[in-house]
Fold:
Amino acid sequence: MVQPKKFLEALQKSGITFFTGVPDSLLKNLLAYLEEHVPMENHITAANEGNAIALATGYHLATGGAAGVYMQNSGLGNAINPLISLADKEVYAIPMLLIIGWRGEPGVVDEPQHKKQGKITEALLEALSIPYVVLSADMSGENVESEILRLSKLSKKQGNPCALLIRKGTFESYKATKPAKKTSSFTRENAIEIILDNLKGDEIIVSTTGKISRELYEARKKRTEDSEKDFLTVGSMGHASQIALGIAHQKKHKQVYCLDGDGSTIMHMGALATVGWVAPRNFKHIVLNNMGHESVGGQPSAAGIVDLSGVAKSSGYSFVSTAGNKVELVKALQAVKKHKGPAFLEVKVNLESRKDLGRPRETPVENKKKFIGFVRK
Structure:
C-alpha cells in the first residue's frame, strides 16, 4: 500500500506544492495527512471540482507552477467545462496534476450512483486528452514516485492537465492527530429523528447524498415507517434543493422539505438564489451543518466561516432560523411549519455518525417508483 507521507513527498519533489479539490472517501487517508502537514496558504478545499480547476489555474498564472487537484471521479462532471474551456492545451495550456479517486471501478463492489461513472472514467479522461496512470496498492513506492514525476513533467511540458487515477485501497490508513472541533451537543441522526417527530407525516422529503439519506432511511426503519415519502438522493451532490424545488413548484398543495448538508449547499450555492427567486410558499430547506465533509472523511468545509442563514436571507428566503440543540430545533421547526414562503433552517450538529450506519436496501429506481406513487396520489 502507498504511504500518504511518501506520496505527498513525491508530489512535492516533482514541484507540486499547492493543493486544492473536493474530498473523496478513497483519498481520505491522503487528505487527512495533507490537512495536517500542508500549511493553509498551500491548500484550499474548493466548493466544487470546477472551482478547483479554476483555483489551480490562478495558482499557475501567479507562480508558473502546477497544482495538485484532488477529487472523486464523479466530480469530473463539475470539472469538465473548465478542463476543456480553460485548462486545455488548445486554450490556456494550464499544467496541473489531477488526483482522482476511482469509485465504481468495474469489478469492484460500490454504490449504485458510482457504477456508470466508474465504467466511463477512463474513457472520459481519454476523450478529454488527459494522459493518466492507474495507481493501486500493489505498486511499489518507487513506481508510484516515478509515475508522479513522469506525469508532472509531461503536464508542464505539454501545458495540459494529467491525472493519477487512484484505485480503492491504494493508501495506507492515516488517522488524523488533531481532534475534530465539536460544534454542537447532538448528532445529525438525532436531529433527523427530531425533525420527523415534529412533522405531520404527509410531507414530501428530499434528502441529499451521503449519510443524511442513510440516516433518514434508518430513522424511518426505526419508526417502522415506509420510505415512500422520501426521495433519497444518491450522487448529484449539491442538487437536492433543486430536486425539491422542482417538486414544490409542481405540487403546491404539498409541503416539501429538503434535508441538505453544509458541503452540498456550498457546492452549488447559486441554488439558494433560484429558490428565493421562484419563492415557493411550500418549500422548507433544512441544512444539517457539521462544518465538514463527514461522509468522505471529515475534512472541514467553508461552513465554519459562512453565515448560511444570512446567505439564504440575502437570496430571498422569507424566513430563516438556526438551531444548535433539541429545544431550539423543536421551536424552530414549529415556526418553519407555520411559515408560508421559502423557509431556511440551519441546524448545527456534531461531526460524527454511527459506524454501523446502514444503507437503503432498495435500488434508486425502486425508491423512485415508491416515491412517485406517494407524490402523485
The chain has 14 helices and 14 strands.
